[in-house]
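Consider the following assembly input.
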Amino acid sequence: MPKLTIDDLEIEVPPGTKVIDAAEQLGIMIPRFCYLKELGPAGACRMCAVKFLQGPFKGVQMSCMVDAQDGMVVSTNDPEAVAFRKQVIEWLMLNHPHDCPVCDEGGQCLLQDETVSGGHGLRRYLGRKRTYRDQYLGPFIAHEMNRCIHCYRCSRFYQEYAGYRDLGPLQIADRVYFGRFKDGPLESPFSGNLVDICPTGVYTDKTARFRVRHWDLERAPSLCIHCSLGCHTVANARYREVVRIEGRSSGKVNAGFLCDRGRFGFGYAAHPERPRNAKIAAQNVPMSAAVREAGRRLLEIRESSGAEAIAVLGSGRSCLETLGMVQHLSRVGKWTAPDFFENPQMERKVKAIVSQLDARLAVSLRDVEKADCILAIGVDPVNEAPMLALAMRQAFRKDAKVVVVDPRPIFLPMRFEHLAVSSARIETLLQVLLQVLRQTDLAAPPAPLPQPIQLSEGLLSEVAFDSSVQAQFHALVETLVGSRNPVILCGSGVVGESVSSLAADCAEVLQNAKGKGGIFYVLPSANAFGAALLASSPEHSFLDTVEGIENGTIQALVVVESDPLRHFPDGPRLQAALTKLQFLLVLDYLPSETVRRADIFLPTCTLFEVGGSFINQQGRLQAAEKVHAVGTPIHQATDEAMRSARGEEGGGKHPPRMYDLGIPGGEPKAAWEVLDALMEALVPVAEGTWREDPWEVLKQEIPLLASWNGRGYPADGLHVVPEKRPGAAVALPLETEAHTSPSEASLQLLLVDWTFGTEELSQYAAVMRQVEGEPFLCMHPQDAERCGLAHGDALEVRLEEGSIRASLKVRENMACGVMVLPRHGRIQWQELRNLSGRVPFECIQKISTDTQVIEDLR
Amino acid sequence: MSRYPQVLFQNRKLKRINTLEEYCQSGGYQALADVLREYTPQGVCAAVQEAGLRGRGGAGFPAAKKWESVPADGAFPRFLVANSDEMEPGTFKDRVLIHAEPHTIIEGIAIAAYTIQASKAFIFVRPNYEGSAAILEREIKRAEEAGYLGRRILGSDFSLEIIVHLSGGRYICGEGTALLNALMGKRPNPIKPPPYPTVKGLWDRPTVVNNIETLANVPHIIRNGPDWFKGLSLVEKSPGTKLFCVSGKVKSPGCFELPMGTPLREIIEEHAGGLLEGSEFKACLPGGASTRFLIPEQLDVRMDFDSMGEIGHRMGTGAIIVFDQKTCLVGATLNLIQFFARESCGWCTPCREGLPYLRDLLWRIENGEGKEEYIPTIRSMCKDMWNSFCALAPGAASPVESLLTYFEDEVHEHIVQRKCPFQ
């Protein structure tokens, strides 16, 4: 451990620590522009110059380029270093446009800070300023190249860190330009990070442009709930409305970066049609009246048909407090067991996954970055959990091998091996892999495996994998055997129920031998893990509820922050069932179809208005804080008030004053608070006080939390998994019968997620319209040929009652016999009644040819 | 004809290159044959080490030491890059060498590649030298046909392919690490070692970058021995001969092969024929545009790496640009700084922003807009250039800094007269 002295303070740091970081640990923030810990040293800006007085280096050196070494004596405020840094500032300001008053970066601008602190105040340079032409970079990012100080952070992040190529440095000398070859939307789904890392205002958040000054913002640490990873964010609000999301560094999840879905998908919270009033039969009523009426109706049903006639449905987008209260209410009220998943099949998969995780096997997102071998099974990182792709890329940059087993046309911003086998074959493949791993000496030093691997050869040919897959499989086994830190990623969307346990077994065998590595699951929603922990009844699912409604045993349905009409796989059936209900009570903050059908609606708060706790896919319990007060955003409220005052449509925004007792639109409460109030209405007060502390409720409902006291969280969250998982799954008999042969005239329909356009919450954000593209589906060239279809054809897929229209993308990098259909928000995929999961060829009709298929990287 | 022994230019002809046959007649490719038959890679290295061959690209780093820094267990394939991206203003020795004796370069590459066990070599050629690149390609093909290149050279186990690569054409591409980036198709930004290219170079494989003049010396060292090579020089620490390019106000500018340590006065007055009629020596740049001006009092310095270093100057590439008393040195320096400001790669701030600043100040002085306070500003900025990422900016500042050191009066004169006194 090198020990050095910086500004007369001694510090001992791990080997390889840069002097700039060592100083930071002492609380000395050496000025910098190009240096960013995640991106590593660059030495481009020369701003972090310090003077080395003793040790292996002497004189002025860049503190980001020098590793801390024993005996170094460093001065950060030596006059020579200070003078040089001042000169650097002058150089950087030569061409800067000084447009701070109209720059969104103003107030949080590193260039402003360093210019002021560096002491450069008077302009000496008399030459002309350099000017650039800005580019259109898509709906997320505004480009102002004149402000650029050429720190190369953007290109290093975009190309090296994230692995996309369409933005980078062009030209040389003082004409260096950061942009694209020509105008156009950025291809990377991580482009928003340019806003965070740019030290000045070259890249600013276009969706927040000119809306706020930084010092006026209400800011609080929050969480991203647009997928199951639970990335840490900072939410920025103004006038009762989130205007911008920034990345926040966390030790276990994200390294300060975010994907564009997580960053720009917050628009649901201030959606113009967000229901903010309680409603009875679609008429606005005060919240208290609606709660009373709801209680009365539920009591009525309990009296007439018994408590079991009431069912409740929650979902993985609610915070844990709400889910716990749902469970509690249902249990105390003796209702039918609650469901937390709209999709019964998904529920089984998530529960299986949650039961596999233990403290030893579950690796965090940051651990994925350290893997030297990554096997991704049935997971499409860029589309399902984008930040996972970024973590994988960091491992790849350190020479990790990446192998993906998935039927879909997978794109990753890195080189990887893709075994494009159908969903059913993944299971078989994993069974073979598990057997091979169990019979191979994994602890042996990596040596070339005897070719061929007898066992897998036999097994693989027995189960009829073609030779190319067999060869890829060999390579995979060899990579796993030779690895030191293998991590298995496993999805829940397109794979069968047994895959998660097989994957965990493989990970366990590997970890036992290597002492490192583990498993990383991807779940379907932000709090799916919490929902699975609470969904105590293993037998009951929402399908039972639907059946109960159909046969009349269930008469009231309470839906809490869930949209079953969107997620339940058989849309027509659910629609029919809902009409048979006597009473539908919905609590939500989204203007969803389910909300529109509610007999009574109770508005709830978003994450930004009350905070909340979520358990991510690794089992990490993390908290988001409240960001701003509940209420209609001022711009919307004043618009509304002006219009109603004048009795007209439209209207101005000024003056922004309204006279009322409460905050307009301030009625919604946290869902758990509403449920608590409902409980009070249901149960006579004499039976006890129902003012429940949601955390006391959670401790009762989740055994893993029972021993935990207090509400404070460690910085990295609380890992809510058992010490040891119940035990390896029993080895399943190997499925050797021939799988569906490709001659069969049908395709397996895979409904999948896409980065933009399929996720529930972000779909309500207006800006997503501009990036989600048109609905499409993907087929393998062989299948397309057999159906007589070509790339770009407009298709209609008609199944029983429903049909969807989408254009066809023909993709070679996917499995045969599969049709991949992203659940695009503009197609009614629920109507396909996808319970059989197969689409006969004759159901696929060509409508026209040569539609504009928007080409992306895939 | 020179009174000194000619080595690289021994077969230099007036209007054409020396052919393969002629080269072989004069003992060419014998060294390669000997090396492949009798020498281990370490043996070649030892011989070159003993001869004390130093890099001719400007820095004067011992060639054998560079080769030795390739780790013995380094990965394969390894690469050798012959640097002929001659963009330093005033330097044209590589072109003359290619047009005189291409096969000594090719043989040198083959021997050096054998020494580091490289299977592929690149000659990185300045794009303006299209003709030279064509010659190299043609002669490489001939050498291949004669069995001096290609698979299993001369019946040995050693194979080598040489690829002629025409640079994209920027000054920075001549910098070793930037050159490697350019070869890989990346932006030619320099890279700060470690790791050194000899450990992790092209595509992360060990790679050696040598100037082609350095490589051309290698066959002669093998053929004639280290002692002969040392005897060629007039000084002890820089053995061998050097190709000097003389341009500017001299009677017979050109490229001359002279011993290391030949006095500068002798090069200018004897070999370059002295100054033009009516011209008096005012100053010269001894080693290309990125070296400091030398003044008449320093003319007796010997041209070798160490003698120049002793008086605080650099020999650089040995490209001597001579200025006479009628030349405005502010204008000349402005011309140079314009070149460097344009050729900065744009990576680090001092070079990217500081050089245009210097250019602006010099332009103002030259055009009668100068002020006295510019002089200390220029001075301190020249000093700050030393804190830049690579050697481009300090090199670019060298003529400016020496202008103020030796010709401050001339600069003052510009400011006082509010015009260039030479116009």
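The longest helix of chain B spans residues 349-366. Ask yourself how this observation constrains the way the partners meet.
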